[in-house]
Amino acid sequence: MIYEIQIGEAVRKLELTRDGDAWSVALDGQPLPADIALVAPGTISLLLAGRSFTFAYASADPSSVWLAAAGHETRAEVRDPRRRLAQRHFHLTGRARLNAPMAGKVVRLLAELGATVEAGQGLLVLEAMKMQNEVRSPKSGTLVSLAVAAGAAVATGQLLAEVE
Amino acid sequence: MPSRPPFRKILIANRGEIAVRLLRACRDLEIASVAVYSDADRAALHVQLADEALRLGPAPAAESYLDIARVLDAARRSGAQAIHPGYGFLAENAAFAAACRDAGLVFIGPSPESMAALGSKTAARRLAQAHHIPILEGTVDAVSSLAQAQAIAQRIGFPVMLKAAAGGGGKGMRLVASAADLPSAFALAGAEAAAAFGDPSVFLERAVLQPRHIEIQILGDRHGSLVWLGERECSVQRRHQKIIEESPAPRLSPATRAAMGAAACAAARAAGYYSAGTVEFLVDADERFFFLEVNTRLQVEHPVTELVTGLDLVQLQIRIAAGEPLPFAQADIVPRGHAIECRICAEDPEQDFMPSPGTVARLVPPAGPGLREDSGIYQGWTVPLEYDPLLSKLIAWGEDRPQALARMRRALREYQLGGLRHNLGFFRRIFADPDFCAGRTDTGTVARLLAQPPPPSLAPDPAWQDAAALAAALATAAALPPQPAAASTPSHWQRAARTEALR
Predict the structure, then answer these.
(1) Closest CA to B81 of B14, B11, B5
(2) Which residue of A25, A38, A48 is the best one to mutate when testing the B interface, meaning the one whose CB has the most B CBs within 10 A?
(3) Res. B498 pLDDT band, cuts 50 70 90
(4) For residue B141, is pLDDT > 90?
(5) Smallest CA–CA separation between B426 and chain A, in Å?
(6) Which end of chain A is flanked by fewer CB atoms within 10 Å, N or C?
């Protein structure tokens, strides 16, 4: 399971795999030895190189999670690439808004305004942390608005395009 | 105080943390407690903890907690003998105190007569002046016109402070730097005072720049005994409202402290005061003090005084209201150690402390030596939009100020509150500030802190950032949000989390 986690400006890639009774964790491609205990609803205990972190968490809003440990708090946006894949196959009606899944730069546009697009077709390419991601159409229809141009910097959640 | 309960049943005409505090005092005294609530507060903690609870009316305070007829009717229906008003709402309303008396109910507070004598800031200034208590130069009566305000301001010299006569909580208050600023400030302060208190009168006094705000707790019985219970330093304020209070005040000489105590008692005696009250002073850089006003009620920050004196002010208020004499004299009051309080509010320090209601999704309060928390919230509760953003008061006690601060720092580190914006992070910052730690605070402390970027030492280190990324993924895998009220056991939940993660 791979997650993209954005905390502040930083986007981290975290891979979580079940390894017997434990999890194995890789952060940005590097193994992260971690002892994980889900100690109570809303509480996760982590031992990282012997350091103890007890995180309380809660849903901050539909797209982010609030986390607190040892007198620090933060909000993290978690993107689950597989879930996004699944969402692409939902048949949507009406006008679909496409928002930036992360802060980054629009590298190039893959479709023109007014074009007929298929569900899952790439509309533009977004680059963040040196990784390029295709942003795909959530449904079949017409590309009725393009809110950004190639080279534009976008913030998380910013409107990119609309398909009707 | 082992005697029999002073009352059989008390109605608590308030909500939030103070209603909880009051009904706990009732329970300690084996007195039945009656809560009242608005439609927005049916699920509130004070309703849950009280012995009985009666609905007052719709959510707006004017139709519930501020409606004298409805509160008195609830008291009548419940058979309560006395009413405790807490602070805010009807607590300083002399007409309410008089209406209680007329209805045959004991108002747990001072007499309506002393409330009237001290309740308006201008009346209190006149009383202080008559008893040779130092006041800031200015008017002792409301200013009737802009022309008069200009004339007085020219005489005492700018900057001046405009204040609502009926005021409190910073509303109707304006600092005026020059004659050119006076016309708009005069109009705005008057309009704000009219909106907040139904009375547009304002008065003028000389402004003390970067003053300290220090207040004296007083307590008197109905037989003429009156004592003062030390002071509280309340200089750390935002939007003219206190957020941190402590006792004793750092950097205050014993002679000044004693003189302030004597002045506070003189003002209270002049008004025939009984019950708990607070006399507020401004203290300038040369430790000269000036009478500001009297709060004729229990103060939000009363726990600070309770921790250093060992007294329970609410229980004492109840006993005094029942006619009991003060069980001690001034010489018996020996404060011990240092106490400090943080007001935890649902507000966003990054957005000018705008109130920010929401649901308490996760709540892990701190514990351990030297801590007290007076809270009005619980996990799963949605903080209503209609009322004050104060959620809870966290109070730390230590043998001295450094120990009290260290305990508060520890508590702020342990405290986890998620789901809404709050000021815990801002408190962590204040308690790391060298000036604050050295006791160098004044009413400009918060503004100075906000003008600087947070120190890098307060930012989490890389290992914390790594752990947070992992926790974020695990929290997502465990299917947000957790169900705080659900009866499912952790093991159930852990199984579910694992299944989720492995999907």
Answers:
(1) B11
(2) A38
(3) very low
(4) no
(5) 11
(6) C
List B residues 332-361 in contact with A (Cβ-Cβ < 8 A): 361
> Do residues A75 and A94 both lie within one domain?
no
Question: pLDDT-derived band of residue B482, with 50, 70 and 90 as boundaries?
Answer: very low
Residues A21 and A56 in one domain: yes
Task: Name the residue facing B473 among A5, A18, A43 (closest C-beta).
Answer: A5
CB proximity A23 to B under 8 Å: yes
Reported as a single tens digit per residue, the pLDDT across B111-128 is 999 999 998 888 899 999
Q: What per-residue string of b and e applies to B351-390 under the rule 16 or more CB within 10 Å gives b?
A: eebebbebbbbbbbbbeeebbbbbbbbebbbebbebbbbb
Among B residues 377-416, those touching chain A with beta carbons less than 8 Å apart: 412-414, 416
B184 — contact with chain A (CB < 8 Å)? no
- This prediction has a pTM of 0.82
Strand A122-128 with A131-136, pairing: antiparallel
Residue A129 sits at the chain B interface (C-beta within 8 Å): no
- B478 vs A contacts (CB less than 8 Å): 38
Q: Single out the residue in A58, A79, A100 at which a domain terminates.
A: A79
Sign of CA dihedral A122, A123, A128, A132: positive
User: Based on the domain organization, do A151 and A94 belong to the same domain?
Assistant: yes
- Determine, yes or no, domain membership for A84: no
pLDDT tens figures, A23-35:
899 999 999 999 9
| Domains located in chain B, CATH noted | 9-108 (3.40.50.20), 137-206 (3.30.1490.20), 212-457 (3.30.470.20), 462-502 (no CATH)
CATH, residue A115: 2.40.50.100
Higher pLDDT, B54 or A136: B54
Contacts of A79 in chain B (CB under 8 A): none
Query: Can you read off the two tokens belonging to residue B420?
Result: 């809404």
The pair of three-digit structure tokens given for residue B317, joined into one six-digit string: 């208020």
- Provide the token pair at B304: 């600070």
Q: With respect to residue A85, please indicate whether it lies within any of the assigned structural domains.
A: no
Quick: pLDDT tens for A50-82.
999 999 999 877 778 999 999 999 999 998 766
From A59, A79, A99, the end of a domain falls on A79
Whether the CB of B484 is below 8 Å from some CB of chain A: the reply is: yes
Rounded CA separation B66/A139 (Å): 54
Number of domains chain A is built from: 2
Any residues with CB less than 8 A from the CB of A62 and at least 6 apart, and which?
none
**pLDDT of A82:** 63
